[in-house]
C-alpha cells in the first residue's frame, strides 16, 4: 500500500501467528507492535490512543477474552478498525465479536490474500473516517420523519454497522425495503463513494450464475468475445448487495463461500485467482435457518452471512410511517400533489400485503388516474388481494358457444372466467394489429397456429367467410 507508514497492534499470544501477521503488515507498508495479553494491549493503547491504524485481535488470550478489549474500545468511543482472528469451529464467537463492533474477522488458518485484503480495507476505513473528521453515522440528508417504534431498532442497527466491513443479512417480507436499507448503510460508511452493485440471486439463470457473478475471460467459452468482470469484479472496492441470496443454487453457494473466505474469485478461463475487496450485504425473505436444516442452504455460508442480521418489519407493523412514505412517493410522481386526510386514513387502514412496494405502486397508480390536484380516498383501489382494473374500464366480455363447449361455467357478474379474460385479450391484440392474425400472434408472444386454434375455440372466426377472417 502506498502512503506514509502506519502502525498495527497485534494482540495475540501465538508466536507463529504473530510473526505471520507481522509479515503481512510489513508487506503492506506498515509496522507491527505485539501484545501477548489483554493487560499489555490496554497499556499500549492507553499510552498512545491514536497511534494504531488497526488491530489484529485474537479472542483467546491468557488473561481473558479479546471480546473484553473490543467492548472496552467501543464503549470508550474508540473507532480503530479491529480485525478479529479465531480458530476453526469458533465462528459463533467471531459472530459475537462482529456484533460488538469488529471490522472484519478471519478464521485460522487463513490465506495471505485474505489477510492482506482485510488489512488494506481496515487501513482505508480508518483513513477515510479520519479525513472526514466525523464519527460514522447516518447523515442529516438521509434523516426521515421521526420513525415508528418498529423501525427505530432497525435504523440504530444500520448506524452501528455502517462503519464496519462486517457482512450484514437483511431479513423481511418481500417489499419491506431491504435494498433501500442496504443503500442507506453504504451511504453512511467509508464506501459511500465506491461502487454499489445489486444482484437479484433469484433471477440468475442456473447455467449462467458463475459467469454473471465471477466473470470470464475472452474466449473462455463459445460467445465469450470479450472479458467480463462479473458482479464481484464490478463491486471491487465497494459493496455487493446479494438480494434473495437464499435462492442461490448449491454450486453457486460453494463458490460464494470461497470468495468470502479467501477474498478472491476464479473468473471462468482465468489463469489465476483474482483478488477482490468487497463488503457483502445480503437479503432474503426466506427462513435460512430452516433451509439449512433442510439441506437447501450451506451451514458454513449461513454463518458467514448471518453475522449481523437486521430484520425489517412489515408495513402493517409500522403504520405510523405510512403518511411520510406516501407523501414522498406522491412527490416523486407528481411534485406538489397533496394527499387529503381521508386518503391518508384509507392508506393507514389497509393491510399492505405487498408492503412498501405495494404502497409505492398504489400511489403511482392514483397519481395517474386522479383528476383533481389532491389525492382523495376514492382514488385508491385497495384490497387485501390483487385488485383488477374496474370493469367499467374494460371491454365487457360476451358469452360464446365455443366457451360453453369447452366446459367453462358462466362467469359471475363480479369476476370474469379465465377463458373470458383470454378471449378479450386476444380481441384487444387483433384490434391493435388491425385484424391481422400474424401480427397479433407476435404481439401476444404465441405461434400463429396457436392463435388460429384459440380463435376457433372462442368462435372468433366469421362463419360465412371462406378466408376465415377474425371477427374484431
TrEMBL record:
Residues 148-368 form the Sigma-54 factor interaction domain. Keywords: Activator, ATP-binding, Cytoplasm, DNA-binding, Nitrogen fixation, Nucleotide-binding, Phosphoprotein, Repressor, Transcription, Transcription regulation, Two-component regulatory system. The modification 4-aspartylphosphate is found at residue 58. GO terms for biological process: phosphorelay signal transduction system; regulation of DNA-templated transcription. One of its GO terms (cellular component) is cytoplasm. Residues 7-123 form the Response regulatory domain. InterPro entries: AAA+_ATPase, AAA_lid_NorR, CheY-like_superfamily, Homeodomain-like_sf, HTH_Fis, P-loop_NTPase, Sig_transdc_resp-reg_receiver, Sigma_54_int. GO terms for molecular function: ATP binding; sequence-specific DNA binding. It comes from Aureimonas ureilytica. Member of the two-component regulatory system NtrB/NtrC, which controls expression of the nitrogen-regulated (ntr) genes in response to nitrogen limitation. Phosphorylated NtrC binds directly to DNA and stimulates the formation of open promoter-sigma54-RNA polymerase complexes. This is DNA-binding transcriptional regulator NtrC. It comes from the Bacteria. It is found in: Cytoplasm.
